[in-house]
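Task 17 of the worksheet. Students: predict the tertiary structure of the chain below and write it out as structure tokens. Keep your answer in the requested format; marks are given for formatting as well as content.
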Amino acid sequence: MHKCLLIPALVLGAFALPASPALADQPELKTLLEQQVGQWADPRTAPETRTRCRGTSKGVWPWGGKWQACKEWQTNVRVMEVYATLNLRGPKDLPKPEKALAESCGRLAAAAASQVNQPETGPAQAAATTTFTTCAGNNGLAAPERFQLAVETRNSWSDWH
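Model answer:
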């Protein structure tokens, strides 16, 4: 029974980021890279539609009175779009060579995140974090824990089509 409780914790912890120090201990961070890594129609939000009459026919009844009927309908649709963006933040006082290396690793992380074919940010975050950490380690970027890497989403309605 005890092992059953540990397995889900291990699985859930696979995508967890390392614990960050207290906010008071962190230096002020600035955005180094902001890059869109995905866009999709939200499967949980129903599309909106609107219908209107584009053309009418008019006439007069033989027994008197006028009539009007729509002969050309137009229906438009729009969907809720989700935009995923990778944001890399780092120390404000970063030397230029380290900043360039961090940005390069951030672009590689964005490419990895954009290849995840799931409409959610969890797997994209995991791919980006793993790629950034590996790139930083392989290229000698000191203390990669100084950087914050996040895949964030925002929603908005598409244009009417």
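Marker's comment: Residues 48-78 form one domain. The longest helix spans residues 96-114.
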